[in-house]
Write a structure and sequence with these properties.
By secondary structure, this protein is of the alpha+beta class. The chain is built from 12 helices and 22 strands. The chain has helices at about 95-105, 115-125, 155-165, 185-195, 200-205, 215-220, 240, 260-275, 290-300, 310-325, 370-385, 460-475; strands at about 1-5, 15-20, 30, 35-40, 45-50, 55-60, 65-70, 70-80, 110, 155, 175, 280-290, 330-335, 340-345, 350, 355, 360, 365, 400-405, 425-430, 430-440, 440-455. The longest helix is centred in the C-terminal third of the chain and has 16 residues, at about 370-385. The chain is globular.
Protein backbone atom coordinates (compact mmCIF):
# COMPACT_ATOMS: atom_id res chain seq x y z
CA UNK A 1 0.00 0.00 0.00
CA UNK A 2 1.23 3.51 -0.84
CA UNK A 3 1.60 5.99 2.03
CA UNK A 4 2.23 9.63 1.22
CA UNK A 5 4.34 11.69 3.64
CA UNK A 6 3.55 15.41 3.77
CA UNK A 7 6.14 18.00 4.75
CA UNK A 8 5.46 18.66 8.45
CA UNK A 9 5.64 21.97 10.28
CA UNK A 10 9.29 22.00 11.36
CA UNK A 11 8.75 24.53 14.11
CA UNK A 12 7.27 27.95 14.86
CA UNK A 13 4.73 27.79 12.04
CA UNK A 14 7.31 28.08 9.23
CA UNK A 15 5.29 27.88 5.98
CA UNK A 16 7.84 26.26 3.67
CA UNK A 17 11.24 24.61 3.34
CA UNK A 18 13.77 24.16 0.55
CA UNK A 19 15.06 20.71 -0.33
CA UNK A 20 18.83 20.86 0.15
CA UNK A 21 19.77 17.23 -0.43
CA UNK A 22 17.97 13.92 -0.87
CA UNK A 23 19.61 11.01 0.93
CA UNK A 24 17.41 8.39 -0.74
CA UNK A 25 16.27 7.64 -4.29
CA UNK A 26 13.23 5.94 -5.77
CA UNK A 27 13.41 2.21 -5.08
CA UNK A 28 15.55 2.52 -1.92
CA UNK A 29 14.59 0.47 1.10
CA UNK A 30 14.34 2.64 4.22
CA UNK A 31 13.90 1.98 7.92
CA UNK A 32 11.80 3.81 10.47
CA UNK A 33 13.40 7.15 11.48
CA UNK A 34 16.16 6.86 8.88
CA UNK A 35 17.18 10.33 7.64
CA UNK A 36 15.82 10.70 4.10
CA UNK A 37 16.46 14.38 3.30
CA UNK A 38 17.94 17.66 4.45
CA UNK A 39 15.74 20.73 4.13
CA UNK A 40 16.47 24.39 4.80
CA UNK A 41 13.86 26.43 6.60
CA UNK A 42 13.89 30.14 7.25
CA UNK A 43 15.96 29.43 10.34
CA UNK A 44 18.08 26.30 9.99
CA UNK A 45 19.02 23.17 8.04
CA UNK A 46 16.91 20.29 9.35
CA UNK A 47 17.17 16.54 8.78
CA UNK A 48 13.90 14.78 7.95
CA UNK A 49 13.47 11.21 9.28
CA UNK A 50 11.31 8.61 7.58
CA UNK A 51 7.96 7.93 9.27
CA UNK A 52 7.77 4.48 7.65
CA UNK A 53 9.77 1.36 7.01
CA UNK A 54 9.36 0.37 3.39
CA UNK A 55 10.34 1.29 -0.15
CA UNK A 56 10.63 4.80 -1.55
CA UNK A 57 7.99 4.89 -4.27
CA UNK A 58 8.41 8.50 -5.41
CA UNK A 59 10.02 11.83 -4.56
CA UNK A 60 7.68 14.77 -5.10
CA UNK A 61 10.35 17.49 -5.23
CA UNK A 62 13.91 17.89 -6.42
CA UNK A 63 16.91 19.40 -4.65
CA UNK A 64 16.51 23.18 -4.75
CA UNK A 65 12.71 23.10 -4.85
CA UNK A 66 10.72 24.98 -2.20
CA UNK A 67 7.94 22.85 -0.70
CA UNK A 68 5.02 24.25 1.29
CA UNK A 69 4.19 22.72 4.66
CA UNK A 70 1.45 20.12 4.20
CA UNK A 71 2.43 19.38 0.58
CA UNK A 72 3.49 15.88 -0.55
CA UNK A 73 7.17 15.21 0.03
CA UNK A 74 7.71 11.50 -0.61
CA UNK A 75 5.62 8.37 -1.15
CA UNK A 76 6.43 5.01 0.45
CA UNK A 77 5.36 1.49 -0.39
CA UNK A 78 4.67 0.05 3.04
CA UNK A 79 4.20 -3.57 4.02
CA UNK A 80 1.32 -5.19 2.19
CA UNK A 81 1.48 -2.84 -0.80
CA UNK A 82 1.69 -3.88 -4.44
CA UNK A 83 4.84 -1.98 -5.34
CA UNK A 84 4.78 -3.29 -8.87
CA UNK A 85 2.02 -0.90 -9.95
CA UNK A 86 1.72 2.81 -9.33
CA UNK A 87 -0.88 3.97 -6.86
CA UNK A 88 -3.01 7.10 -7.11
CA UNK A 89 -1.89 10.18 -5.25
CA UNK A 90 -3.22 11.28 -1.88
CA UNK A 91 -6.76 12.58 -1.77
CA UNK A 92 -6.20 14.96 1.11
CA UNK A 93 -7.86 18.24 0.29
CA UNK A 94 -6.32 21.63 1.03
CA UNK A 95 -8.26 22.07 4.27
CA UNK A 96 -6.95 18.76 5.62
CA UNK A 97 -3.40 19.64 4.65
CA UNK A 98 -3.69 23.01 6.34
CA UNK A 99 -4.92 21.32 9.50
CA UNK A 100 -2.03 18.88 9.35
CA UNK A 101 0.45 21.72 8.98
CA UNK A 102 -1.09 23.64 11.88
CA UNK A 103 -0.74 20.63 14.16
CA UNK A 104 2.92 20.32 13.21
CA UNK A 105 2.61 16.62 12.40
CA UNK A 106 3.24 14.39 9.44
CA UNK A 107 -0.10 13.23 8.06
CA UNK A 108 -0.38 9.77 6.57
CA UNK A 109 -2.15 9.84 3.22
CA UNK A 110 -3.22 6.43 1.91
CA UNK A 111 -4.35 5.68 -1.63
CA UNK A 112 -7.64 3.93 -1.26
CA UNK A 113 -10.27 2.56 -3.57
CA UNK A 114 -14.01 2.39 -2.75
CA UNK A 115 -14.65 -0.49 -0.42
CA UNK A 116 -10.97 -0.96 0.45
CA UNK A 117 -11.35 -1.65 4.13
CA UNK A 118 -7.63 -2.28 4.60
CA UNK A 119 -6.95 1.25 3.38
CA UNK A 120 -9.59 2.58 5.77
CA UNK A 121 -7.90 0.83 8.68
CA UNK A 122 -4.47 2.22 7.81
CA UNK A 123 -5.82 5.72 7.28
CA UNK A 124 -7.46 5.60 10.70
CA UNK A 125 -4.21 4.82 12.47
CA UNK A 126 -2.21 7.54 14.21
CA UNK A 127 0.72 8.98 12.30
CA UNK A 128 3.96 7.05 13.00
CA UNK A 129 6.12 8.57 15.68
CA UNK A 130 9.22 10.31 14.29
CA UNK A 131 12.51 10.88 15.99
CA UNK A 132 13.12 14.61 16.64
CA UNK A 133 13.94 16.60 13.54
CA UNK A 134 17.61 17.36 13.06
CA UNK A 135 18.81 14.39 15.12
CA UNK A 136 21.48 12.24 13.56
CA UNK A 137 20.49 8.66 12.74
CA UNK A 138 21.18 6.27 15.58
CA UNK A 139 22.70 3.76 13.23
CA UNK A 140 25.22 4.25 10.50
CA UNK A 141 23.71 1.40 8.50
CA UNK A 142 22.09 3.14 5.59
CA UNK A 143 20.50 1.27 2.66
CA UNK A 144 22.56 1.23 -0.47
CA UNK A 145 21.40 3.41 -3.29
CA UNK A 146 20.39 1.68 -6.47
CA UNK A 147 20.85 3.26 -9.85
CA UNK A 148 17.70 3.20 -11.94
CA UNK A 149 17.55 0.25 -14.26
CA UNK A 150 20.69 -1.29 -12.82
CA UNK A 151 21.70 -3.51 -9.94
CA UNK A 152 25.31 -2.39 -9.74
CA UNK A 153 26.78 0.77 -8.30
CA UNK A 154 29.86 0.85 -10.51
CA UNK A 155 30.54 2.95 -13.56
CA UNK A 156 32.69 1.99 -16.52
CA UNK A 157 36.22 3.35 -16.79
CA UNK A 158 35.42 5.69 -19.72
CA UNK A 159 32.55 7.24 -17.77
CA UNK A 160 34.70 7.47 -14.64
CA UNK A 161 37.49 9.29 -16.47
CA UNK A 162 34.98 11.61 -18.10
CA UNK A 163 32.74 12.36 -15.08
CA UNK A 164 34.56 11.59 -11.85
CA UNK A 165 38.17 12.48 -12.57
CA UNK A 166 38.85 13.66 -16.13
CA UNK A 167 42.58 14.05 -15.52
CA UNK A 168 43.13 10.81 -13.60
CA UNK A 169 44.07 8.98 -16.79
CA UNK A 170 45.91 6.27 -14.87
CA UNK A 171 42.64 4.93 -13.42
CA UNK A 172 41.52 1.76 -15.13
CA UNK A 173 38.58 -0.57 -14.63
CA UNK A 174 35.28 0.28 -13.00
CA UNK A 175 35.15 2.94 -10.29
CA UNK A 176 32.70 2.21 -7.48
CA UNK A 177 30.41 5.02 -6.42
CA UNK A 178 30.07 5.53 -2.64
CA UNK A 179 27.46 3.30 -1.05
CA UNK A 180 26.62 5.95 1.56
CA UNK A 181 26.04 9.66 1.53
CA UNK A 182 29.39 11.47 1.19
CA UNK A 183 30.62 12.87 4.49
CA UNK A 184 30.76 16.68 4.39
CA UNK A 185 29.64 19.77 6.28
CA UNK A 186 26.59 21.90 5.37
CA UNK A 187 28.74 24.78 4.03
CA UNK A 188 30.58 22.35 1.74
CA UNK A 189 27.32 20.85 0.48
CA UNK A 190 25.96 24.35 -0.21
CA UNK A 191 29.17 25.34 -2.03
CA UNK A 192 28.95 22.21 -4.18
CA UNK A 193 25.28 22.82 -4.92
CA UNK A 194 25.92 26.46 -5.90
CA UNK A 195 28.63 25.31 -8.34
CA UNK A 196 26.69 22.36 -9.76
CA UNK A 197 29.07 19.74 -8.35
CA UNK A 198 27.81 16.27 -7.39
CA UNK A 199 29.44 15.28 -4.08
CA UNK A 200 29.02 11.61 -4.98
CA UNK A 201 31.43 12.04 -7.90
CA UNK A 202 33.91 13.93 -5.72
CA UNK A 203 33.76 11.14 -3.12
CA UNK A 204 34.36 8.57 -5.87
CA UNK A 205 37.70 10.20 -6.64
CA UNK A 206 38.73 10.18 -2.95
CA UNK A 207 37.07 7.10 -1.44
CA UNK A 208 36.93 6.89 2.33
CA UNK A 209 37.67 10.58 2.86
CA UNK A 210 35.40 13.36 4.05
CA UNK A 211 34.61 15.75 1.21
CA UNK A 212 36.07 19.17 1.97
CA UNK A 213 35.74 22.46 0.14
CA UNK A 214 39.29 22.02 -1.15
CA UNK A 215 38.31 18.66 -2.69
CA UNK A 216 35.26 20.24 -4.34
CA UNK A 217 37.36 23.10 -5.72
CA UNK A 218 39.95 20.62 -6.98
CA UNK A 219 37.24 18.61 -8.73
CA UNK A 220 35.69 21.75 -10.22
CA UNK A 221 39.06 22.90 -11.60
CA UNK A 222 39.37 19.62 -13.50
CA UNK A 223 36.08 19.99 -15.31
CA UNK A 224 36.24 21.20 -18.90
CA UNK A 225 35.16 24.81 -19.30
CA UNK A 226 31.74 25.34 -20.81
CA UNK A 227 31.89 26.68 -24.36
CA UNK A 228 31.36 30.39 -24.67
CA UNK A 229 27.89 31.34 -25.88
CA UNK A 230 27.76 32.21 -29.56
CA UNK A 231 25.51 35.06 -30.59
CA UNK A 232 24.43 35.02 -34.20
CA UNK A 233 24.64 38.46 -35.75
CA UNK A 234 22.59 39.15 -38.89
CA UNK A 235 24.48 39.74 -42.10
CA UNK A 236 23.76 42.93 -44.02
CA UNK A 237 21.85 40.93 -46.65
CA UNK A 238 20.03 38.63 -44.22
CA UNK A 239 16.65 40.08 -45.11
CA UNK A 240 17.35 39.31 -48.77
CA UNK A 241 18.60 35.75 -48.28
CA UNK A 242 15.94 34.91 -45.69
CA UNK A 243 18.70 33.90 -43.25
CA UNK A 244 17.51 33.07 -39.71
CA UNK A 245 18.41 35.75 -37.17
CA UNK A 246 18.92 34.88 -33.46
CA UNK A 247 16.58 36.79 -31.19
CA UNK A 248 18.06 35.41 -27.91
CA UNK A 249 19.93 38.19 -26.07
CA UNK A 250 23.44 37.35 -24.85
CA UNK A 251 23.72 36.38 -21.18
CA UNK A 252 24.74 39.24 -18.88
CA UNK A 253 27.53 37.89 -16.69
CA UNK A 254 27.94 41.21 -14.86
CA UNK A 255 25.10 40.50 -12.45
CA UNK A 256 24.12 37.59 -10.22
CA UNK A 257 20.51 36.90 -9.25
CA UNK A 258 19.90 34.93 -6.07
CA UNK A 259 16.41 33.86 -4.96
CA UNK A 260 15.36 35.40 -1.65
CA UNK A 261 14.90 32.33 0.52
CA UNK A 262 15.73 30.77 3.85
CA UNK A 263 17.41 32.76 6.57
CA UNK A 264 17.81 35.88 4.42
CA UNK A 265 14.08 36.01 3.67
CA UNK A 266 13.14 35.39 7.31
CA UNK A 267 15.61 38.01 8.60
CA UNK A 268 14.43 40.63 6.11
CA UNK A 269 10.79 40.13 7.04
CA UNK A 270 11.57 40.27 10.77
CA UNK A 271 13.66 43.43 10.45
CA UNK A 272 11.02 45.24 8.37
CA UNK A 273 8.33 44.22 10.85
CA UNK A 274 10.44 45.42 13.78
CA UNK A 275 11.54 48.70 12.20
CA UNK A 276 7.98 49.71 11.26
CA UNK A 277 6.29 48.48 14.44
CA UNK A 278 8.50 49.48 17.38
CA UNK A 279 9.67 53.12 17.60
CA UNK A 280 13.46 52.69 17.76
CA UNK A 281 15.87 54.92 19.63
CA UNK A 282 19.60 54.38 20.11
CA UNK A 283 22.01 55.68 22.72
CA UNK A 284 25.79 55.30 22.85
CA UNK A 285 28.46 55.14 25.54
CA UNK A 286 32.24 54.96 25.01
CA UNK A 287 34.23 53.71 27.99
CA UNK A 288 37.57 52.48 29.30
CA UNK A 289 37.54 48.66 29.63
CA UNK A 290 41.21 48.16 30.48
CA UNK A 291 40.33 46.49 33.78
CA UNK A 292 38.19 43.94 31.91
CA UNK A 293 40.88 43.14 29.32
CA UNK A 294 43.45 42.74 32.12
CA UNK A 295 41.08 40.37 33.93
CA UNK A 296 40.61 38.30 30.77
CA UNK A 297 44.38 38.14 30.24
CA UNK A 298 44.86 36.79 33.76
CA UNK A 299 42.12 34.17 33.29
CA UNK A 300 43.96 32.74 30.29
CA UNK A 301 46.75 31.61 32.62
CA UNK A 302 44.40 30.02 35.15
CA UNK A 303 44.79 26.24 34.86
CA UNK A 304 41.37 25.74 36.43
CA UNK A 305 39.87 27.36 33.32
CA UNK A 306 41.67 25.20 30.75
CA UNK A 307 39.24 24.32 27.98
CA UNK A 308 37.06 27.38 28.63
CA UNK A 309 37.22 30.44 26.40
CA UNK A 310 36.13 33.57 28.20
CA UNK A 311 36.13 36.77 26.16
CA UNK A 312 34.74 40.28 26.16
CA UNK A 313 31.37 39.02 24.86
CA UNK A 314 30.95 36.74 27.88
CA UNK A 315 31.76 39.58 30.30
CA UNK A 316 29.29 41.88 28.55
CA UNK A 317 26.63 39.15 28.58
CA UNK A 318 27.07 38.73 32.33
CA UNK A 319 26.91 42.50 32.84
CA UNK A 320 23.72 42.68 30.75
CA UNK A 321 22.04 39.99 32.85
CA UNK A 322 22.89 41.90 36.02
CA UNK A 323 21.81 45.27 34.61
CA UNK A 324 18.46 43.95 33.34
CA UNK A 325 17.54 43.10 36.92
CA UNK A 326 17.82 46.82 37.72
CA UNK A 327 16.04 48.00 34.55
CA UNK A 328 13.18 45.53 33.97
CA UNK A 329 11.59 47.69 31.25
CA UNK A 330 14.33 46.53 28.88
CA UNK A 331 13.42 42.91 29.65
CA UNK A 332 9.78 43.23 28.62
CA UNK A 333 7.62 43.07 25.51
CA UNK A 334 4.68 45.03 24.14
CA UNK A 335 1.63 42.77 23.69
CA UNK A 336 -0.52 44.70 21.22
CA UNK A 337 -3.24 42.05 21.07
CA UNK A 338 -3.79 41.86 24.82
CA UNK A 339 -3.09 45.55 25.40
CA UNK A 340 -0.48 44.67 28.02
CA UNK A 341 3.20 45.12 28.86
CA UNK A 342 4.66 41.71 29.68
CA UNK A 343 7.65 41.92 32.01
CA UNK A 344 9.95 38.90 32.20
CA UNK A 345 11.49 37.81 35.48
CA UNK A 346 14.18 35.80 33.72
CA UNK A 347 16.68 36.57 30.95
CA UNK A 348 16.72 34.49 27.77
CA UNK A 349 19.67 36.07 26.00
CA UNK A 350 19.88 36.15 22.19
CA UNK A 351 23.38 36.23 20.69
CA UNK A 352 23.55 37.36 17.06
CA UNK A 353 25.74 35.08 14.94
CA UNK A 354 26.83 35.76 11.36
CA UNK A 355 26.79 32.61 9.20
CA UNK A 356 27.17 31.77 5.53
CA UNK A 357 23.38 31.54 5.35
CA UNK A 358 22.77 34.94 6.96
CA UNK A 359 22.30 36.36 10.44
CA UNK A 360 20.72 34.14 13.09
CA UNK A 361 20.03 34.91 16.75
CA UNK A 362 20.02 31.72 18.85
CA UNK A 363 18.97 32.07 22.48
CA UNK A 364 20.56 31.05 25.80
CA UNK A 365 17.61 30.26 28.11
CA UNK A 366 17.85 31.54 31.70
CA UNK A 367 21.22 33.14 31.01
CA UNK A 368 20.88 35.17 34.21
CA UNK A 369 21.24 31.97 36.26
CA UNK A 370 24.53 30.90 34.67
CA UNK A 371 27.95 31.59 36.24
CA UNK A 372 30.43 33.39 33.99
CA UNK A 373 32.24 30.21 32.90
CA UNK A 374 29.01 28.41 31.99
CA UNK A 375 27.78 31.48 30.14
CA UNK A 376 31.01 31.63 28.11
CA UNK A 377 30.70 27.92 27.27
CA UNK A 378 27.08 28.39 26.17
CA UNK A 379 28.09 31.26 23.86
CA UNK A 380 30.89 29.21 22.30
CA UNK A 381 28.61 26.21 21.71
CA UNK A 382 25.87 28.43 20.32
CA UNK A 383 28.27 30.06 17.83
CA UNK A 384 29.73 26.74 16.65
CA UNK A 385 26.27 25.25 16.09
CA UNK A 386 25.12 28.35 14.19
CA UNK A 387 28.18 28.34 11.89
CA UNK A 388 27.51 24.68 11.08
CA UNK A 389 23.91 25.56 10.16
CA UNK A 390 22.56 23.17 12.80
CA UNK A 391 20.73 25.59 15.08
CA UNK A 392 17.25 24.18 15.70
CA UNK A 393 14.32 26.53 14.98
CA UNK A 394 13.18 26.24 18.61
CA UNK A 395 16.61 27.49 19.76
CA UNK A 396 15.97 30.85 18.05
CA UNK A 397 12.73 31.69 19.83
CA UNK A 398 11.79 32.97 23.25
CA UNK A 399 14.50 35.62 23.60
CA UNK A 400 13.91 38.58 25.93
CA UNK A 401 17.01 40.68 25.08
CA UNK A 402 19.78 40.39 22.47
CA UNK A 403 23.47 41.20 22.02
CA UNK A 404 25.32 41.67 18.73
CA UNK A 405 29.11 41.83 18.68
CA UNK A 406 30.00 44.10 15.76
CA UNK A 407 33.48 44.60 17.18
CA UNK A 408 34.67 41.29 15.70
CA UNK A 409 34.38 42.98 12.28
CA UNK A 410 36.40 46.01 13.38
CA UNK A 411 33.32 48.22 13.74
CA UNK A 412 33.16 50.76 16.57
CA UNK A 413 29.41 51.36 16.86
CA UNK A 414 26.06 50.95 15.11
CA UNK A 415 22.30 51.26 15.44
CA UNK A 416 21.06 47.66 15.70
CA UNK A 417 17.43 46.81 14.92
CA UNK A 418 15.41 45.10 17.62
CA UNK A 419 14.39 41.49 17.31
CA UNK A 420 10.58 41.45 17.06
CA UNK A 421 9.03 41.18 20.50
CA UNK A 422 12.08 42.42 22.41
CA UNK A 423 12.58 45.80 24.04
CA UNK A 424 16.35 46.14 23.68
CA UNK A 425 19.46 45.04 21.80
CA UNK A 426 23.06 45.94 22.69
CA UNK A 427 25.86 46.24 20.11
CA UNK A 428 29.46 45.78 21.31
CA UNK A 429 32.10 47.72 19.38
CA UNK A 430 35.75 46.88 18.79
CA UNK A 431 38.22 47.21 21.66
CA UNK A 432 40.85 49.75 20.63
CA UNK A 433 44.06 50.91 22.30
CA UNK A 434 43.42 54.65 22.52
CA UNK A 435 44.92 57.69 24.29
CA UNK A 436 42.52 58.30 27.17
CA UNK A 437 42.33 60.40 30.30
CA UNK A 438 43.27 58.22 33.26
CA UNK A 439 43.73 59.59 36.80
CA UNK A 440 44.29 63.10 35.46
CA UNK A 441 46.84 62.08 32.82
CA UNK A 442 46.78 60.86 29.23
CA UNK A 443 47.54 57.15 28.87
CA UNK A 444 46.98 54.38 26.37
CA UNK A 445 43.86 52.50 27.45
CA UNK A 446 41.55 49.81 26.03
CA UNK A 447 38.37 51.57 24.91
CA UNK A 448 35.11 50.35 23.35
CA UNK A 449 31.68 51.77 22.49
CA UNK A 450 28.32 50.30 23.51
CA UNK A 451 25.25 51.01 21.34
CA UNK A 452 21.84 50.35 22.86
CA UNK A 453 18.71 50.35 20.68
CA UNK A 454 15.41 50.20 22.55
CA UNK A 455 11.65 50.27 22.04
CA UNK A 456 10.58 53.78 23.07
CA UNK A 457 7.07 52.53 23.88
CA UNK A 458 8.53 50.52 26.76
CA UNK A 459 11.74 52.32 27.67
CA UNK A 460 12.41 56.01 28.11
CA UNK A 461 15.76 57.74 27.72
CA UNK A 462 16.51 57.79 31.44
CA UNK A 463 16.02 54.03 31.79
CA UNK A 464 18.19 53.36 28.74
CA UNK A 465 20.95 55.58 30.16
CA UNK A 466 20.75 53.87 33.54
CA UNK A 467 21.03 50.44 31.91
CA UNK A 468 24.09 51.45 29.87
CA UNK A 469 25.69 52.97 32.97
CA UNK A 470 25.21 49.72 34.89
CA UNK A 471 26.73 47.63 32.08
CA UNK A 472 29.61 50.08 31.74
CA UNK A 473 30.21 50.01 35.49
CA UNK A 474 30.90 46.26 35.37
CA UNK A 475 33.22 46.64 32.36
CA UNK A 476 35.15 49.52 33.93
CA UNK A 477 35.50 47.67 37.24
CA UNK A 478 34.60 43.96 37.00
CA UNK A 479 34.57 43.74 40.78
CA UNK A 480 31.41 45.87 40.76
CA UNK A 481 29.50 42.80 39.58
CA UNK A 482 29.60 41.63 43.21
CA UNK A 483 27.63 44.73 44.21
CA UNK A 484 24.82 44.45 41.66
CA UNK A 485 21.72 42.38 42.27
Amino acid sequence: MIAEFLLPDLGEGLPEAEIVHWLVSEGDEVTLNQTIAEVETAKAIVEIPSPYAGTVQGLHAAAGDVVAVGSPLVSFAVEGADVGSPAPASRLDSAQRSAAAAQGSAVEAVAEEPGDTAADDIAARATPNLVGYGAAPSSGNRPRRRARGSTTSTIDSDHAVREAAPHDVLRTGPIELPRERPRSTPPVRKYAKDHGIDLVLVAAVHPGEAVTRARVEEYASRQPAAPAPVTTMPSPDAHLANEPVSTVPPADHRVTRTPIRGVRKHTAAAMVRSAFTAPHATTFLTLDVTATTELLASLKHDRALDGHRIGVLAIVAKAVCLALGRTPALNARWDETAGEIVEHHYVSLGIAAATDRGLVVPVIPDADRLPLVDLADAIAELAATARAGRTAPAAMTGGTFSITNVGVFGVDAGTPILNPGEAGILAIGAVRRTPWEHHGEIALRDVLTLSLSFDHRLVDGAEAARFLTDVAGVLREPGRAMLLR
